[in-house]
Automatic annotation (TrEMBL):
Protein name: DUF3021 family protein
The organism's taxonomic lineage, starting at the top: Bacteria, Bacillati, Bacillota, Bacilli, Bacillales
Pfam families in UniProt: DUF3021
Highest taxon listed in the record's lineage: Bacteria
Protein source organism: Lentibacillus juripiscarius
TM ranges: 12-37, 49-67, 79-102, 108-130
C-alpha cells in the first residue's frame, strides 16, 4: 500500500473518530440546551450549550492519545495546546466567571491548568490500571 494512501486513510479515521467523540455529546447537549431555551430557561440553556462546546473539544481532542507513534509527552503537550486555544477562551466567554481584570483571567487559567493536571493524572492512572 502506498504510504500517502495509508497516511490519508489513517487521518480520515482519526478525523471521523474525533467528530464522533466530540459530536455525539455536542448534539445531545445542544438539544437539551435548545429545549431549555424554548422553556424560557435562558441561563440554563446557555450553560448547557457552553458545556456542550467544552464536551465537543475535549472529546474530539482525545483522539490525540490514539497516535501511538508519538510519545506521551508530545501527545500531552499537543492536547494541552488544543485545550488552551479552545477550552480556555470558552471559559473566559462563558459568563461562569467574573472577569474584571487580567488577574481574573490569570486565576481562570490557573484553575484551567489545575483541573487539567488532575484529570490528566486520573486518566493516566486509570489507563495504567486497565491497560488502555
Amino acid at each position: 500500500m502506498n504510504k500517502n494512501i495509508f497516511f490519508e486513510r489513517r487521518l480520515e479515521i482519526l478525523v471521523m473518530n474525533a467528530l464522533l467523540r466530540g459530536g455525539i455529546p455536542f448534539i445531545i447537549m445542544s438539544g437539551i440546551a435548545l429545549l431549555l431555551y424554548f422553556q424560557g430557561k435562558y441561563s440554563d440553556a446557555k450553560g448547557t450549550f457552553v458545556a456542550s462546546l467544552i464536551a465537543f473539544f475535549v472529546g474530539a481532542a482525545s483522539i490525540i492519545y490514539n497516535i501511538e507513534h508519538w510519545s506521551l509527552i508530545k501527545r500531552s503537550g499537543v492536547h494541552f495546546i488544543i485545550m488552551l486555544i479552545t477550552i480556555y477562551p470558552i471559559l473566559l466567554l462563558s459568563g461562569w466567571f467574573t472577569i474584571a481584570s487580567v488577574f481574573d483571567a490569570v486565576k481562570i487559567f490557573i484553575l484551567f491548568a489545575f483541573v487539567g493536571i488532575i484529570l490528566w493524572s486520573l486518566f493516566f492512572i486509570l489507563a495504567r490500571i486497565f491497560s488502555w
